[in-house]
Amino acid sequence: MSIDHIPGTEISLTVPYAAQGPGPTVDTLSNVDGLDVVEIEGAETYETSGQLNMTTVAVRTNMSLSQAIGRWLTTDDTIVPLETVIPTGTSSEDMKVANQQAFVQSEAAATVTAMDYLDIPVHVVVAGVMEESAAFDVVKPEDVVLAVDGQDVSEPAEVQELIRAKAPGDEVTLTLENNGEEREETVSLGEHPDDASVPLLGVTMTSAPRDGMNVTYNLQDVGGPSAGMMFSLAVIDKLTEEDLTGGHFVAGTGTISEDGTVGPIGGIEHKIEASKEAGAELFLAPAANCEAATSRDSGDMVIASVETLDDAVQAMDDFANGEEVRTCSE
């Protein structure tokens, strides 16, 4: 499971514990610093009402003993061993990079899932290339990956599956397109830094609609994959005339896979608390997190149990129409 990381106050290093508590909630249908949180260009969008809030967990590290005890006694924060937040041997900077990578991958999956839901075809776009990789000199950001060893691909997961079937040192031929020009490039696969037996292409990928539409997620200082489902829902809401929320305040969390599966996350009890305090009427929770989600008082907020993107859409529709919602208490 994953936990979002919101930078906390840095204090002199003392106890090997971290505090997890409610973090900010952000309406994915709104804007931050003058930019839409979910920005869509090249397609007709529709006015939305209500709210679709993504939720976060605030993680505080580098606490003194008195601060850790104080948070344990006076707040609902969870005090956990530091290694559950920052694995042993991993620096804070490494965790920040890993969380950011997970966030980018979550954005790509959110776009693919929303496009699949709307029956809009997508293709694979290169987001970045590692400088130390063999791909650095031949693959460029914004290249579209059309095929791997002659096999057509349309989603990042398909590229990853074909690469993982190989071994470090193997060569792979990529069919690429940029500005209407198609070319082939052969790359020697490297070794994954965490496991030398795993092949590494050295390319980060995202997804974009094939018809010229562009989806951008303008949210900074948040890491981890748990906003995926809410991003997908925001894209769908903006691209459909029907109002997905029915004008209600909906919050939620959950990873999203490219097949639409909603996955569990960490710290959901804190996200429930933050959403209740913010005034949310309905909370979309991964089914695998239901036990933890109902461990805190949620007041009048309904906690829906969802396993897929379709479940989330159905829960909002049922709630808006006054029908029974499948909840975590069932």
UniProtKB/TrEMBL annotation:
<dbReference type="InterPro" id="IPR014721">
    <property type="entry name" value="Ribsml_uS5_D2-typ_fold_subgr"/>
</dbReference>
<feature type="active site">
    <location>
        <position position="271"/>
    </location>
</feature>
<protein>
    <recommendedName>
        <fullName>endopeptidase La</fullName>
        <ecNumber>3.4.21.53</ecNumber>
    </recommendedName>
</protein>
<dbReference type="InterPro" id="IPR036034">
    <property type="entry name" value="PDZ_sf"/>
</dbReference>
<dbReference type="InterPro" id="IPR027065">
    <property type="entry name" value="Lon_Prtase"/>
</dbReference>
<feature type="active site">
    <location>
        <position position="226"/>
    </location>
</feature>
<keyword id="KW-0720">Serine protease</keyword>
<feature type="domain" description="Lon proteolytic">
    <location>
        <begin position="221"/>
        <end position="319"/>
    </location>
</feature>
<dbReference type="InterPro" id="IPR020568">
    <property type="entry name" value="Ribosomal_Su5_D2-typ_SF"/>
</dbReference>
<keyword id="KW-0378">Hydrolase</keyword>
<dbReference type="InterPro" id="IPR008269">
    <property type="entry name" value="Lon_proteolytic"/>
</dbReference>
<keyword id="KW-0645">Protease</keyword>
<dbReference type="Pfam" id="PF13180">
    <property type="entry name" value="PDZ_2"/>
</dbReference>
<dbReference type="Pfam" id="PF05362">
    <property type="entry name" value="Lon_C"/>
</dbReference>
<comment type="similarity">
    <text>Belongs to the peptidase S16 family.</text>
</comment>
<dbReference type="InterPro" id="IPR001478">
    <property type="entry name" value="PDZ"/>
</dbReference>
